[in-house]
Amino acid sequence: xxxxxxxxxxxxxxxxxxxxxxxxxxxxxxxxxxxxxxxxxxxxxxxxxxxxxxxxxxxxxxxxxxxxxxxxxxxxxxxxxxxxxxxxxxxxxxxxxxxxxxxxxxxxxxxxxxxxxxxxxxxxxxxxxxxxxxxxxxxxxxxxxxxxxxxxxxxxxxxxxxxxxxxxxxxxxx
Length: 174
Description:
71% helix; 174 residues; 0% strand; mainly alpha; 5 helices
């Protein structure tokens, strides 16, 4: 039946299947890597300690993405005007308008990006300060997580560990 689906779940980190079976599978790995957990914990500690700084980082990322999209739109518009207009390029008023708009937008974006560089450097300083903490806490997570191999009672969720981590960070006196 074409709508038939079979989901297999395993605790093996890297299950092996025959090539014929592997060709018909979609393998999804939900395990977390050490680097990913370090980054997640680092973001959690900076968010807990400096919420405005983390909010600024998110805003910078969003604004940078929007700026790239806007430049891509203007670039596409310029290419469209160049390819669709028949005759002299200098007679194309739409192209001239789009070129002047793209020049203005590009200059604005350049100014914003220069300001963002200094803000990103400040954010990176805070992240670098807390990186050793996130490295050690990620290591502790994997050590405690491996305890479930000895006794299933020690099995716990990553979300629980992160909440515990944030609570511990918030409990530290200033």
